[in-house]
Amino acid sequence: MITQRLFAAFGARIIWVAIVLLLIAVLVPASNLLLPFGHPLRVPNYMVPLLGKFLSYAMLALALDLVWGYVGILSLGHGAFFALGGYAMGMYLMRQIGDRGVYANPLLPDFMVFLNWSELPWYWWGFDQFWIAMIMVALVPGLLAFVFGWFAFRSRVTGVYLSIITQAMTYALMLSFFRNDMGFGGNNGLTDFKELLGYPLQASGTRAALFAATALALAASLLVCSAITRSKLGKVMVAVRDAESRTRFIGWRPEYVKLFAFVVSAVIAGIAGALYVPQVGIINPGEFAPANSIEVVVWTAIGGRGTLFGPIIGAVLVNYAKTWFTAAYPDLWLFALGGLFVAVTLLLPKGIVGTWDDWRRSRRDRKAAGEVPPSDDPQTGAEPVRVVRANPSTPAGPHGAAEPQPAE
């Protein structure tokens, strides 16, 4: 009974993907920590944070899919929410350094001492507490998305104009965070982190725990997005995507539907950024770059927008390819990424998962309309038959239905 309710609430495929993520959250850390060096199944130390980074990117792609695949909002600024969540986590990690920094100041981070700051800015207050930092991880991106969406969606800005505005938003934030007087480390950003909740970040156990937390957060985000899209609200979101004017005429307020999805998406992106920072060890204004947000669009398109788990596949595959290409052929990666996007757009317009679903659906339809399998009894000698629709020239059976005709 419980299993049936779960499958009905989230969908069978989403449940299976979540189960796979749960297994990954257990098996990868266990392989790294428990198996001896040299074992063929052991995940190397460097691979654990790398895979964790891929899963953080997958969360970001999932967040974009919620608004692009189900509401039709092509956001080119989701990297801003990701970076804001990362900065919130980075501020907490910087406060944990204390007097172990280069200048041994127990209160001010090193870059503030270098820039002759005399006191901690007010917006850094409280970031020495983990719970406050975690609230900011969700609150800051969510609040920015709410304010931006409130004005943009109530003004009925749609299509390419909305995409350009989101890109301008993240570009403006990038320029702001590059300034040294903003108090976020300028172009160097925040780095040289020491520990998280008292555990050293360079320890294998801490890295394994961060990876497991990222996989669990991705599974939870996937279930939340699936529950939203399969609910009545999810149906309205799709209606807004396909026919916004008609949805408004029958009494719904599309701007509120868009605003809800946009805020939830921003919060998920912020959490992804917070999990990303301690695993890579740095956060700087380059994360706000519009090119990063465009890359997220590419991951989502390749995986298949409107499928939820398709962008997860796209993000992991593309970033794995990026890791390999930038090591083997560093000058060719951007050409490879552009060629991949063009090829997918022309050959797989619905992405990997969408194309697979279409192929399965067409195969099932052909099977339903094609030949009926022959009898399993080899002694009957029954010929395969084909179901033919009734028409004036087809003799009817005893109950008025068309008689099966022998296959040619």
Query: Uncertain regions: pLDDT < 50 for 5+ in a row?
Result: 375-382, 392-404
SSE pattern:
HHHHHHHEEEHHHHEHHHHEEE
In whole angstroms, how far apart are the ends? 47 Å
Helix content: 55-70%
- How many domains? The number is 1
Short description:
By secondary structure, the protein is mainly alpha-helical. The protein has helices at 2-10, 12-34, 47-71, 78-95, 110-114, 130-154, 159-177, 204-229, 232-242, 244-249, 254-280, 290-303, 309-328, 333-347, 351-369; strands at 190-191, 195-196, 199-200, 282-283, 371-372, 385-386, 405-406.
Structure, described:
This protein has helices at 2-10, 12-34, 47-71, 78-95, 110-114, 130-154, 159-177, 204-229, 232-242, 244-249, 254-280, 290-303, 309-328, 333-347, 351-369, and strands at 190-191, 195-196, 199-200, 282-283, 371-372, 385-386, 405-406. By secondary structure, it is mainly alpha-helical. The chain has one domain (7-363). It has a 3-stranded antiparallel β-sheet with strand order 5-6-7, with helices on one face. A two-stranded antiparallel sheet has the order 1-4. A hairpin with a 2-residue loop joins strand 2 and strand 3. Helix 12 (290-303) packs across helix 13. The chain is globular, with a radius of gyration of 26 Å. Mean pLDDT is 85; it is low at 375-382 and 392-404.
Based on the model shown, name its key terms.
408 residues, 3-stranded antiparallel sheet, two-stranded antiparallel sheet, 15 helices, 7 strands, 3% strand
